[in-house]
Amino acid sequence: MSTAAFFDLDKTILAKSSAFAFARPFFRGGLIGRREVLRSAYAQLVFVTSGADHELMDQMRNYVSNLVTGWDVETVRSIVAETLDQIIDPMVYQEALDLMAEHRAAGHEIVIVSSSGTDLVEPIGARLGVDLAIGTQVAIEHGRYTGEILFYAYGEHKAAAMRELAAERGYDLEQCYAYSDSQTDLPMLEAVGHPVAVNPDEALREVAVDREWPIMDFERPIGLRTHSKQIAVTGSSIIVGAAAVVVTWYLIRRLTRVSRAS
User: Fold this and answer.
1) What is the pTM of this model?
2) Range of the domain at 8
3) Active site includes 8?
4) How many domains does the chain have?
5) Is the C-alpha dihedral spanning 102, 131, 108, 106 positive or negative?
6) Pick the catalytic residue: 10, 119, 181, 185?
7) What CATH number has the domain bearing residue 105?
8) pLDDT band at 41 (very low <50, low <70, confident <90, very high)
């Protein structure tokens, strides 16, 4: 049996919301208007200062689902690829990178589990050098998003994906770790033997204190380029770049089903 460290993305690895961080590049790319940029900025502020509860996450899901309907998939992927370093690099917590390095050194696989869409989660995961990425899946037809959500990586769905992934890859969940900031990720944290509250919202902090879970507060966003220079000096293996294998949970399920059928 092997061990994995499951990381939420927003406010756990990144200091802000990955989904709303790309509002301005999407505006410049013609995908959204000024109103959507302002709404995204406001949502980002609420998310950073107050956290996300179930009601807010439902609102965000419906808003984003409606917003992306009809978007050209290749345009989105191109914008993300071109602006990833500029947008994401300054948002990454130094403490998260150090923690991932510790897990890597211990032989643990690193898995991101995020409610953001896979077209964001995958390239961010590759940039971070993680092994696997689980994100929200939106249906695509004729090269455009339909707005239909095939898999919402949120709440109990995150935990279900983790359990299925554990069965496929041989993880012992009692020996696994999970890191998140939000009360909405309680199922994710409860799915493993080593839950950790990172930058927890008020509700999660209360749960963590009551259950005597470790609490970690990350405060130092740092550019990945800066961290990469540090890695070159220390010899750390956290950023493995092209050697990383980033596969979404949805694709894993499809490949597994094909192999079982053959």
Assistant:
1) 0.77
2) 4-261
3) yes
4) 1
5) negative
6) 10
7) 3.40.50.1000
8) very low
